[in-house]
Design goal:
The protein is mainly beta and about 300 residues long. It has two helices and 26 strands. It has a six-stranded antiparallel beta barrel with strand order 1-19-23-26-25-24. Strands 2-10-17-12-13 form a five-stranded antiparallel beta sheet, with no helix packed on it. This is Carbohydrate binding domain-containing protein.
Length: about 300
């Protein structure tokens, strides 16, 4: 059993991202004098757009002509780990990526004590927290995201790697003026992060045995008259049904915390040492019975926004 935690994420704006080597734009800036062809892409204010109609001087944001000449592709690579929505639609299967490493520094401007990364493809993640006026980091830890399975010499040299996809840590010192540097390393490969959340963790009970994991895929399969099949690959989404025990005197506080997250994504963690119980998403159901002997039980179903 472990504390069930939820972390509402703070908004990461350009002012808070004080260092990041990734480019601000994925495509050229929009130019009203350019004759765009179908399939051309541009970047405006950290958002990418693709032309679906050949056009000139039809601004992707302000154009009111129907049908629209542009479709939004969502946030640029640099911010995709923090923002996945296109309007009210949250795109699954998107992530921030870069060869070898992703190295960024965030200045939250407020007290935080937790950080979570999901959909990580890397060998390690290093988190460094510094405070002005303090010569040494107040927090500096490196977390391995892959290791050799087993303990024998044979497994060490010939065994497969066991990987972790998610990471959640709750021991960041709660300074209000700290800078947080995150280095996601993938030597010889492509470093990738699906989502990153920073914020203040709230305890909403104790996760217990009975929690279940799920995954729904959205690919379609069409069978032809001769038995052949056409498979159209699409995204997939994780879900976790957390089984949680909570003290009767904590129920109102937990409800208040979840009420603020009705339609907002957050980091949910059943046990930080079990990376498969770490998920960023929205909760769908919160069913709790009346407490008996000051003990209540509830199910919290969370669907991933990955």
């Amino acid at each position: 059993m472990s504390e069930m935690r939820v972390v509402p994420g703070i908004e990461i704006t350009p002012a808070k991202m004080i260092a990041n080597a990734l480019p601000d734009m994925d495509y050229p800036a929009y130019n009203p004098a350019t004759a765009y062809k179908i399939g051309d892409k541009v970047t405006i204010d950290r958002l990418n757009y693709e032309a679906v109609v050949a056009n000139t001087n039809r601004h992707p944001v302000t154009d009111a002509v129907s049908p629209s000449a542009w479709v939004s592709l969502g946030w640029v690579n640099k911010y995709r780990m923090f923002n996945k929505n296109i309007g009210n639609t949250w795109k699954i299967g998107t992530f921030t990526s870069n060869p070898e490493s992703i190295d960024l520094t965030i200045r939250p401007g407020q007290r935080i004590n937790a950080i979570g990364l999901v959909g990580v493809y890397a060998s390690s993640v290093r988190i460094i927290m510094t405070v002005p006026g303090v010569p040494d980091p107040v927090y500096d830890k490196t977390f391995s995201m892959s290791r050799k399975a087993g303990g024998s010499w044979y497994q060490y040299y010939f065994g497969q790697f066991v990987t972790k996809d998610n990471l959640a840590e709750f021991d960041l010192p709660p300074f209000s003026n700290a800078d947080i540097r995150v280095i996601v390393s993938a030597p010889g490969g492509i470093a990738r992060v699906g989502m990153m959340v920073l914020g203040w963790a709230k305890t909403i009970g104790t996760a217990v045995y009975g929690t279940s994991l799920g995954r729904k895929k959205y690919s379609t399969v069409r069978e032809e008259f001769d038995g052949s099949m056409t498979i159209t690959g699409r995204g997939r989404r994780r879900s976790i049904d957390f089984q949680v025990v909570i003290g009767g005197d904590q129920i109102s506080s937990a409800q208040r915390s979840l009420d603020a997250l009705d339609d907002a994504p957050a980091l949910y963690v059943g046990a930080s040492e079990l990376d498969y119980t770490v998920i960023v998403g929205i909760f769908e159901d919160f069913d709790i019975g009346l407490p008996t002997y000051n003990r209540g039980e509830y199910t919290l179903k969370v669907r991933s926004l990955m």
